[in-house]
Each structure stands twice: as C-alpha cells, then as structure tokens.
Amino acid sequence: MVDITRVEVGEGRTVSLAFSDGSERVVDLTEWLWGPVFEPIAKDDDLFAQVAVDPEQGTIVWPNGAHFDPEVLHGDYERSQPWKQDRH
Questions:
Q1: How many domains does the structure of the chain reveal?
Q2: Per-residue DSSP letters for the chain?
C-alpha cells in the first residue's frame, strides 16, 4: 500500500502528489469531482485549495471529509467507469 506524503494545488483542479514510494504524479481531478461531497469542491476555488494530506489515512482530504483512495491516485487501479452513466 502506498500513501500520499505531499500535495500541492495546481491549475484548475489538478494536484501534484508525492507518494511514500518516492514517486510523484500530477492528477487532474476535474472528472472525479461530482456528487454531494465533491460538488462543492468542484465549484469553490478556495475550498479546493484547502486540500491537505491526512497522515492517518495516507491520502488527500478536504475540510468537508471528502477524500480519495491513495492507490487510485497513484495509478494502481483504474476508476470504475459506470459512474459516468449515473451523472445524467
């Protein structure tokens, strides 16, 4: 299991992440920010910028409790695609 050790906010809805295995990755979260927990983050620049690393969870989190699986952000697993059908 890999943890996120650092996060920096980039342009738009991107984050630059450092992982416990020494790798780094820039992730565009634009398409991932939907649903009741993530929509406020998608719409509010100030809220998006409040992203932080939670060392206990080993991932990025926002003040409203939203977070992602660090292994998905690392690229170990692909997101499931059926969510696209549920958005409409």
A1: 1
A2: ---EEEEEE-STTEEEEEETTS-EEEEE-GGG--STTTHHHHH-HHHHTT-EEETTTTEEE-TTS-B--HHHHHTSSPPPSTHHHHT-
